[in-house]
Amino acid sequence: MAEALLENIYGDFYHAYSGGSDPREINPLTIKVLNELGIDISRKRSKSLNEFQDEEFDCVVSLCGDGDEICPVFVNGKKQIHQGFTDPRSFKGDNKTRLESFRLVRDEIKEWIKKEFEIELHD
């Protein structure tokens, strides 16, 4: 979700790559809540951090936030940023309740990205 949001908001200035320690299929609710913003990730796939082990990045961002969630360490970044968000897959309830939870996390990540990676645009 964060990769797609950063690319959508600041794609002219940043290029995002995302990977995890336990990649799974992209949750259909993630696809749905991003589609609501006009972002189509239906052809994307989850990637493992192992795919990036030989790459070096200007900035590595970790977003894991649950107390029982294992947050991987990826040292190939010049700068490290951590911001915890609840994993929306952990939400319980009916589809309507879960969808609202995915929207909440989407909006939290979106607002954080806008502030954290803000670009000063000058004429």
Notes on the protein architecture:
The chain has helices at 2-10, 28-35, 95-116; strands at 57-64, 77-85. Helix 1 crosses helix 3. 32% of the residues lie in helices and 14% in strands. The chain is α+β, with helices and mostly antiparallel strands. The model has no long low-confidence stretch (mean pLDDT 88). The chain has a two-stranded parallel sheet. It has a single domain, classed as Rossmann fold, CATH 3.40.50.2300.
Could you give a quick summary of the protein structure above?
The chain has 123 residues and is of the alpha+beta class. The protein has a single domain, classed as Rossmann fold, CATH 3.40.50. Helices cover 32% and strands 14% of the residues.
The CATH class is identified as Alpha Beta
Cα separation of the termini: 31 Å
Total number of distinct structural domains: 1
CATH topology: Rossmann fold
Biggest sheet statistics: 2 strands, parallel
Mean pLDDT: 88
In the sheet with the most strands, the strands line up as 1-2
**DSSP strand count:** 2
Q: What is the helix tally?
A: 3
Structural class: alpha+beta
| CATH architecture type | 3-Layer(aba) Sandwich
Strand content: 5-15%
> What would you report as the Rg, rounded to the nearest angstrom?
15 Å
Identify low-pLDDT runs.
none
Helix share, percent: 25-40%
CATH homology superfamily name: Response regulator
Q: Specify the overall morphology.
A: globular
Helix/strand order, N-terminal first: HHEEH
